[in-house]
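Suppose you are handed a protein chain with no further information: no name, no annotation, nothing but its sequence. What can you learn? This example shows the usual starting point.
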Amino acid sequence: MEKKSTHRELKQQISELKKEVKRYAAQNSDEKYRILFEKSKDAILIIENGKFVDCNQATVDMMGYKNKAELIQTHPSSLSPDHQPDGQDSFTKAKKMMDIALKNGSHRFEWDHMRANGEVFPVEVLLTTISHQEGNRVIHTIWRDITNRKQAEKARLEEKETLSTILESTPHGITLTDNQGKYLYVNPYFTKITGYTLKDIATKEDWFKKAYPDKDYRKKTSATWSNDSNHPGQGKNCEFKIRCKNGQSKYIEFRSTFLKDRRISVLTDVTSRKKSEEIIREKDRLQGVLELSGAVCHEMNQPLMSIKGYFDLILMDIPKDTPLYSRIDKIHAQIDRLSNITKKLMKISRYETKNYLKEKIVDLAKASTTENS
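A reasonable first move is to predict its three-dimensional structure. Written in structure tokens, the prediction is:
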């Protein structure tokens, strides 16, 4: 009997010991959770049946209330502005968010809260369901202030929009390619200059074939591109003649900058400048010719005047009704014409041209001061 009694007592002691261990473990676990709860830098709250029942000090500090009791007594709707950024009513949307958490076990989303002083600020919310029994719905809530993150995102967005505005409005063509020669971006002015869109030139091979149809010229431009690619940083300024999508030819100045695995190229249409430079060069070439011709004309003018005088004397001795008079008179007229031309050549004061047999020649009538004096 004593043995049986001892055995029962031992079993009872073991059972009580197990219960004590469980109570200790539970108590120890609760203490650990309470420490984490209170020491967390994130705001932590417990919502039971739609009402706040507990929160940590970080929540009080975040929301700007005097103490925990004051915050818990505040209705949840008072901690948010009337509407969220998406336009939804805060009260209605909050219920939707909690319903999702109760259904799925947890739910993460962004939310606008309002401090005690009325300041609205963004938070990231994590709702985790603890109990989902009828009449006892408990949700563990974490709020993390994401004001700095949102400000950084806004700054990046504004910077991106500013850069986009610059790229879209600059009077230069701009392209972005990767280190494989794939075109990642072309701005509107590039298309305005060349006519090509990003779809037309997916790769540099597409660009070279279309912009430089002549194989030899294409080889030259490709070599320049490759040589530039071997020198990181600022590339050299290059000028090439391209064929646009509409078949028109243009002179383009290229400037490239290399950033890691990206190449930014700036294109400037210098066709008008090239034409102006060509006109100036042509004028300079003709100026020397005109100066020489003026000197020659001056030397020719005196003999012409002598010849003209002799023909005048000859005509005085020939009857007007004879065939000889008519022939000599025609020669006399051509001498007068030649004399007028030499006078115009000697008096050219500006560069004026006219079309003649698909070429441009000096327009003596406009260039000579004789016609404008």
